[in-house]
Design a protein that fits this description.
This protein is mostly beta strands. Helices cover 0% and strands 56% of the residues.
C-alpha cells in the first residue's frame, strides 16, 4: 500500500492493456491495468525507480539510480524480482533492443550497451557538460528492418541525437526555436514523439527532419508509452495518475 502520494516518473507498455510504472515516492513498481484503471500489483523495492523498459518474455528492467542498480522483474499476474545488475554509476534512463540494455548515465555523460547479465558490450562518452541534476525519459530505441536507432535527448543543446547500434552519432535533429526536449519515444515508421519544454507534444519525422506540433498542454509531459493497437499515448505528468492521448 502507498504511504505517500504516488509520483509516476517512468512507464513501459507490456501489452495493450497493461503498463508497468515506477513510483519513487513509495519506492515501488506497479503493474497497472489501463482498461480497468486499477493497480493489479505493487512491488516495493529498495530504491527510487526512475526509468523502466520492457523486455522479452514478460519482463521489465527498472533503474534504481541512487543504488546504482538495475532490477529485472517478471510481470505476470504480479511483479517478481528475477535478477539484479550492479552498475558503476547512476543510470538515469534505460531502453532495450535485441535482448540488450541501453543505459544512459546521470548528466548524459556516458551511454552503454550491455547484456542482461550486466557485461558491457559497448560504451561511449557523450562529452556533455557536467550538471547538478539530470532530465529523465531521455532515451528511446527502435529497430526497423536491419537498422537499430538509439535516440537521445540532448537537453542542454536543444536537440535529439540519433546513434547507431555501435553508439556512433548518425544524425542531429535541432528542436524548433531552441526548445528543450523533456522526453523522447520512438513509435515506428521513422516517427518520434517528443515532449518539448515540458508542456508541448511534438512529432518528428526523422526521414524529413520535419517537426509537427500535436498538442499544447498546460501540464508537464513526463514519461510516455505508446500502444499501436489502441493508437493511444499513455503519459505521466509526474503526478499520481496515468493519462491518455489519442494519436490519429
Amino acid at each position: 500500500m502507498d504511504r505517500e502520494k504516488p509520483y509516476i516518473t517512468s512507464m513501459a507498455l507490456l501489452s495493450s492493456d497493461r503498463l508497468v510504472v515506477g513510483d519513487p515516492n513509495n519506492r515501488s513498481v506497479k503493474l497497472v491495468d489501463v482498461v480497468q484503471d486499477k493497480v493489479l500489483h505493487q512491488l516495493e523495492v529498495d530504491g527510487m525507480p526512475t526509468s523502466v523498459c520492457s523486455l522479452p518474455e514478460a519482463r521489465v528492467a527498472v533503474t534504481l539510480p541512487f543504488k546504482k542498480r538495475i532490477l529485472i522483474l517478471h510481470c505476470d499476474s504480479k511483479l517478481s524480482k528475477v535478477d539484479t545488475i550492479t552498475l558503476q554509476g547512476r543510470c538515469c534512463s534505460i531502453a532495450s533492443s535485441n535482448k540488450l540494455l541501453i543505459v544512459l548515465y546521470e548528466n548524459q555523460r556516458k551511454i552503454e550497451i550491455m547484456n542482461l547479465n550486466g557485461s558491457v558490450v559497448k560504451q561511449k562518452e557523450l562529452n556533455v557538460p557536467d550538471r547538478k541534476n539530470y532530465v529523465r525519459s531521455q532515451l528511446s530505441v527502435m529497430t526497423e528492418g536491419d537498422v537499430t536507432s538509439i535516440y537521445v535527448c540532448d537537453y542542454y543543446k536543444s536537440r535529439i541525437l540519433r546513434l547507431d547500434e555501435n553508439l556512433q552519432k548518425q544524425q542531429i535533429y535541432p528542436l524548433p526555436d531552441g526548445a528543450k526536449p523533456s522526453g523522447v519515444l520512438a513509435v515506428g515508421d521513422n516517427q518520434l514523439l517528443v515532449g518539448v519544454d515540458g508542456i508541448n507534444l511534438w512529432q518528428l519525422d526523422t526521414t524529413m527532419g520535419r517537426w509537427t506540433l500535436l498538442s499544447e498542454w498546460t501540464w508537464f509531459i513526463g514519461p510516455m508509452a505508446f500502444c499501436h493497437e489502441r493508437q493511444v499515448l499513455y503519459y505521466g505528468d509526474f503526478s499520481d495518475s496515468v493519462k491518455r492521448y489519442a494519436i490519429s
